[in-house]
Amino acid sequence: MSRYLVDKFIYRVDRNEGMLKAYMADPAGFVARWEKEEANKLNESETTSGHKFTDEERKALAERDFEKLYAMGAHGFLLWTMMLPVLEPEFPNFRALVDFYNSKIRPYGRPLRTSPSGLQMANFKSQNLRYEICNLRFGAKRRQPIGRSRVRQRRISLRLKRPPRGSLVKPTTEE
pTM for the full model? Predict the structure, then answer.
């Protein structure tokens, strides 16, 4: 999958109301037109070459098959934000839409992505991730408290023993 181009398509269409309406009206025609005119634009003045949808991606986008796009690795949040206005008219309420969407993508789990620190970001529990990050950053052990809650070693400090007021005696140190 050319994940970059699919994510770019989803992002750009979702952020532009005119494009979104055109996509909702004629998905297959819009996908073909967007690929021809917009896919290789980096910005208003620069273009690139070599980015094309695969046949499978083109078909999934034209059919609004979010399940297939998600299974191929499209960015989950971007896909959800684009599909929300596309699917919303088909459902009686928001909860029904969310339940339908989740039931379709649940079998695929979370997309496997690697974070900048090298962690595999799929099917993790937040507590496990917390310990993994802690191990990377602080070398902490499992079940050891993190951050300010960590028990600190007591420091031996020297405290000044103050003489009574008006006394000319120098202060002494005490452990």
Answer: 0.61
